[in-house]
Design goal:
about 120 residues; alpha+beta; 3 helices; binds zinc ion
């Protein structure tokens, strides 16, 4: 397990499926993990704690990891753009703000996934 900070978010990275399952699912003692049912990547978001936990198999594809990281980062978005009507007439500043917000979100999710993907965990 490895920990690091990214944009104020504590990231906990697992590559050991046993460790990940033990920390999140409280398996009964002596339980055997069915390795064939382990996903390429998985995650949990602790919204209050600004923390995400990511499990990544060593053979995980980048796209699978990216989707997991984007999903967990999405849980940390507060507020959103509820007041910004998607069918507003014409262009306004809110549209630009919204586009910039999600562009930053996607770029940050991409960079974090890239960092996790390339971490040398041995
Ligand atoms: Zn979720």
């Amino acid at each position: 397990m490895k920990r690091f900070k990214f944009k104020g978010i504590l990231v906990i990275l697992y590559t050991d499926a046993h460790e990940f399952v033990k920390d999140f699912f409280d398996p009964p003692q002596g339980a055997i993990l069915d390795m064939d049912s382990i996903p390429e990547s998985a995650g949990f978001a602790d919204i209050d704690g600004k923390k995400i936990s990511i499990f990544k198999r060593l053979d995980c594809s980048f796209e699978d990891l990216f989707a997991t990281v984007a999903h967990e980062m999405g849980h940390l978005i507060t507020g959103g753009f509820i007041d910004n009507p998607t069918r507003a007439k014409g262009y306004n500043k809110l549209h630009e703000k919204k586009a910039e917000h999600y562009e930053k979100f996607a770029v940050n999710a991409y960079r974090l996934a890239q960092r996790i993907y390339s971490e040398n965990l041995k």
